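Justification of resources, computational component.

The compute hours requested in this renewal are based largely on the per-chain cost of generating structure records like the one below. Each record pairs the submitted sequence with a full structure-token output. That output is archived, and it is also reused by downstream analysis tasks.
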Amino acid sequence: MHNFDFWWSILTAVAIGTCVFVFGFLGKINEWYYVRTRFGEKEIKLLPPGDMGWPLIGSTWSFIKAFKSQVPESFLNSLKTRHGETGIYKASLFCNPSIIVCHPELCRKVLTDDAQFKLGYPCLSMILGGKSFDFFLSSGHKQFRRLTTSRINGHEALSTHIGSIEDIVITTLQEWSRRDQPILFTDETNSVAFKVIITIFLGSACDASVMAEMEKHYTCLFNGLFCSAINIPGFAFHKAVKVSLKNPCMKIYNLCKCMISCCLHQARKMLVKIIQGVLAERREKANAGKDIIDFIKEVEDEEGEKLDDEHIIIVLLVFLLAGHESSGRAVSWATMYLHDHPQVLQKAKISVPYFRKNKRRSSEQGPRVKKVIDETLRLRTNIFAIFREAKKDANLNGHFIPKGWKVLVCHSAVHMDPEIYPNPKQFLPSRWDDFKPKAGAFLPFGAGSFTCPAADLAKLEISIFLHYFLLNYKLEQLNPGGPVNYLPSQVPADSCPAKIIKLN
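The structure output for this chain reads:
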């Protein structure tokens, strides 16, 4: 018996030692591949702290596990525990060597430094198309952006859209309240946001069926924005692999990646085709109104050239990607939070008449409603990180950032930093009383030249929705407090089934 215990202990120790050795060895392969074979000792010492994880998957599995656990901050907390509170770390995520930035000042620097960093979303070039993507990153785009966004930014410009947004919101709320069956509140508010963007850009040229078809293809594009070749359940690549399991070909990785590209290309192609049809229809109508799309068609670039239809459509896609998600999701979360906090709801209702009285002269929200919106945007940042990529070997506060590495600006982590926002998980609009966050500490719409171009429009849309909803309706959730999907955007896992009740 004693001999058995002895040999069992020996075998257990050997097994544990073997696992530690093998896992430790595997953990060094990515470090060797991405770091040791490419840089000298001087550059290696200047890289941010961190590790590159396992071969191929890097730290992606740990990242996904944290976000699936309903405690997404645990991934960064693990990095902080192992490597210190540096606010910047290296890792291998989504099959890319990456730098993770989660300090306010570093976030601001990355987002505002166009000389060193460019847009780095994994599939953005596939979504926009090569030619259009090049234009989107060009210096001429900045001038064009300033001209086009002038139509949806600032009180005077925004006031011209209040009537259109009101019509959509009022009609939609009435229709929801008449339904016998519950609605999926998150999905429906996203549809409202989509309709607002399309109506403001294209006027009333789209009927309901055309708009529904456009939204379907747009949703595919947005989901593909963060798509990478990751064979993990929940990712588009994994779905493609499942489709191709019958193919034993060793090139299945490239095949599936090609399938994703084709799906995105097809969705973009269909969306472009629909919008081209709308543009052609507008040209045939001599009495078509002057909507934003008409203004865009007249804008000239630095060389005096007007945009062709392809670039005009890409502009619309960019505004959809930028403005639709932020407003749609914020509307649903703000409404849910208010109904979960009756005292805050009552204070917000008192603030509503302020907006009503001033809405024809100003696009500003009532002070309490503004705090509700800011607190919602802090708690439920639209995406988990803003993606950038180093255009060249860069320097960030003394840290070496290699050319081509992704830089993930984790503004969602900054928004949940207890040093900046005490009790960060609580919905506390009152925290914004006489509080002005320092630079980089509040980035719901990003910063720099690629700040969300529809930020002001999104806030106006949220304000108008809350205005009419708080005065005339209430939300009855069927499954309050359910789990949340955090990737790529924070949404209730069940899309919040609810009834919309009209108040007497």
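Residues 234-260, 359-363 have pLDDT under 50 and may be disordered. The two ends are 81 Å apart (CA to CA).
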